[in-house]
Amino acid sequence: MRTIVWLVTTVSVALTLAGCGGVAPPTSEPGPPALTETLEVGPMLIRPASTAGFVAQNIDSEGTASFAALYGAQINYLAAQALLDRIVFSSMRDGFSDIWVCHLDGSDLVQFTNNAASDMRPQWSPDGARIVFDRKWAGQDREIMIMNADGSSIHAVTSNTVDERDPCWAPEGRRLAFESFGPGDWEIFTVYDDGIAQMNLTNNAASDTGAAWSPSRADPDILFASDRAGDSEIYRMDEDGTNVTAVTANSWQDYRPAWRHDALEIAWDAELSVGREIVIKSAAGGAMRNFSASSDSDSEPSWSSDGKWIAYASLDIPNIDVRLQQTQPPHAVFRLTTVGAVDEAPDLGSPTMQVERVLIGPNGSDWGGNDPVWSSAYAGIVAFDNRGYLNFVRIGIAAADVSSLQFTPMGNTGLFNAGVAVEADQIVNLREDAGRGRQPTVWNLSPLNAGAALLYFDALTGKLASVLVSRDVVYPSASGASAATQSVQGDRVVVEGAFSAVFDGDGRNIAPGGARRVTLDRDGRLVAVD
Questions:
Q1: Comparing C-alpha atoms, which of 55, 59, 45 is closest to residue 15?
Q2: Taking 60 as the threshold, does the pLDDT of residue 475 lie above it?
Q3: What's the whole-model pTM score?
């Protein structure tokens, strides 16, 4: 049985979703309310109307998910925190190309370099402590530079009379790969971060560019683009320059490869017949797929540390903007910069604690101007695991019914589900988070005059699996949830009571005529209704 002792702390914060200089959400859209006092429950930030009566109650679970019932005061703001990457990119918004950093939602924008030089192609070190980039002063050649993650202690790694650009880190964070025009054409070199032991890995008449060092210490291969076969293709080599093999062999141009954080996939930009797109392919081989698939020209991909996002530069004439796209369906795209300038060469890394989702708050206050689940709540159940937020269900009740609200955990079943009885004078509806930018799943209980509901959750995913509703107009009543009994029979849970309706995890009423006996599987899903 997972029994959690909730640590509820009060923190003083001022959360905004300002963005990278007019970024998503745009400044014309409402942000969350100004926060002066916020409760912290697990990874959740909560602003109740009154902290005095607010309760975070544990719900027992047999799986990896933890559940908390939140009630006792109106919740005006609920957001999930997570360790999310910061984005470092180069921008010409002040007339010169400088290095800028912001959070994954575009907030906390900081300019790290501010000079008349051209500072481009930044990349986080594997430990997030430093940033490497290339710099060119007017009349001088381009060199490789390093600075701390706060923009301090900028120093040169290379200092010579040839152009050197587009640096990337080795997985151990000591060496760099970059491209140099020293031999008279672009070749891939490596060097230690103190400028020692520079070595040419490629040495031919072709143009070899865009080095990307694998994040795998066990197999630290380097990807790069080369026109040695006529057009530009992606190649792979050992970190000492040996064993060069072709990754692509096609009729279009392929540039700027990037590894996924676990080295299982690679992305690059390809000049396809439909335009320049970000494409993805397994590092072990197989077919590629068009990832960005947009009408704009997309280039310079970079994976997030958790593999859930790819940032890239997108040409939307006359501007170049940084965009962020989900790697999993629905592959939603968020425009990070919209300032009418050239913003390019994004890199993801250096995770910090940030707001990942706004679940309760004003319309438009979630990422990209999306709406949260609802604007306020008198009660809800949140699920999360050791990786962070999983799910949220808002319990819809009227303000007059708040004093009658009661949560009763359904006890230890020994199976991978979590059950809780919710009772009030009337429960109007349930709204479950269906994902950013999607309308929540709704269980409409109002026609049932519901005063009690048994909620069963999948204790691995945190999703609501089934809802058993009792008609209960006078609280408390023996016909309510408190009268229901459950027993474990093998790998099933049998629940008996007086149920006016039985809903599945999609909000469909499976038993509109009512039921006396309901059988659930080990994950809380409906098996039989009698």
A1: 45
A2: no
A3: 0.84
